[in-house]
Design goal:
Blueprint: H1 4-26, E1 30-35, H2 43-58, E2 62-67, H3 70-80, E3 85-87, E4 90-92, H4 95-119, E5 124-128, E6 143-147, E7 149-151, E8 157-159, H5 162-172, E9 177-182, E10 197-199, H6 200-208, H7 216-228, E11 233-238, H8 244-249, E12 257-260
Parallel strand pairs: 1-2, 1-9, 2-6, 5-6, 9-11, 10-12
Antiparallel strand pairs: 3-4, 7-8, 11-12
Length: about 260
């Protein structure tokens, strides 16, 4: 009879064997990961995410992180007595709100994420969409950590939804995968059951029927735009689950919803 400790070691080996085909398939590919929600707040989830991103780099995958920060922005706005309006899940950003967004996203949060990834052996660099021409960077083995702040033609700062930025970055890089971390399991059907696989046609039908609504609308839309632009697959996953990215990518069943063009 095998002891408990030995059975646990064997189970770990089985997990590695299950991941091996995926590691082989995605070696050298680019994954764009939108990082947000509770995964950015809970200490053990933040630490686990940084470790997972570093692991992806070490197994030969090129991760690009686009982070949000909605709860942190809301907290700062509330402390300042500023009311933030939302339309269909997207924040309406006036000039005063934009100042807070830049301070929270482009400063504090971006550097915290970079620091965590570096603590776990990754080499990360913090970027903002305002940084001139940063997408023309040269190869250096760094993991880009991007704050979703851009500028318009007049040089004024704009706050762009992090899901939208992640989708656009994934399309521009011809990424293999776009992974959107959120605070729910994924896309659910009319009976509130998780749907593990959707085509663009499925998503369009569910939106028309009102099954997909609220904050999920911009997520599925950027997923649709990404796969229509050549991204292999888009995934909407629950960032509240520890190691959610690895569980979605390196296991046979996955944990969220994958969206494909057809």
């Amino acid at each position: 009879m095998l002891g408990r400790a030995m059975r646990e070691l064997i189970e770990k080996a089985n997990v590695l064997h299950e991941a091996l085909p995926y590691i082989r398939r995605f070696h050298g590919k680019t994954f764009v990961i939108k990082y947000g929600g509770h995964a950015m707040i809970e200490p053990h989830l933040r630490d686990g995410f940084a470790r997972d991103v570093a692991l992806l780099k070490y197994v030969g995958i090129n991760p690009v992180v686009v982070h949000g920060g909605g709860p942190q922005i809301d907290q700062m706005l509330a402390a300042m007595g500023v009311v933030s309006e939302r339309i269909e899940g997207l924040r309406v950003t006036d000039d005063r709100t934009m100042e807070v967004v830049e301070m929270v996203l482009g400063g504090k949060l971006n550097q915290e994420i970079v620091s965590l990834v570096c603590q776990h052996g990754g080499r990360a660099v913090g970027l903002s969409g305002k940084d001139d021409g940063f997408m023309r960077g040269v190869k250096g083995g760094f993991i880009p950590v991007i704050a979703p702040i851009v500028v318009d033609d007049k040089g004024d700062s704009l706050n762009v939804n992090a899901d939208t930025v992640a989708g656009a970055v994934a399309a521009a890089l011809s990424a293999e995968k776009l992974v959107l971390m959120t605070d729910i399991e994924g896309v659910k059907d009319r009976d509130k059951k998780l749907v593990s696989h959707l085509t663009a046609a499925d998503v369009s039908r569910m939106r028309a029927e009102g099954v997909i609504e609220g904050g999920m609308i911009p997520k599925v839309q950027c997923a649709l735009d990404a796969v229509a632009s050549g991204v292999g697959k888009a995934h909407i996953i629950d960032g509240r689950v520890e190691h959610a990215v690895l569980l979605e990518i390196f296991t046979d069943r996955g944990i969220g919803t994958e969206i494909v063009a057809a």
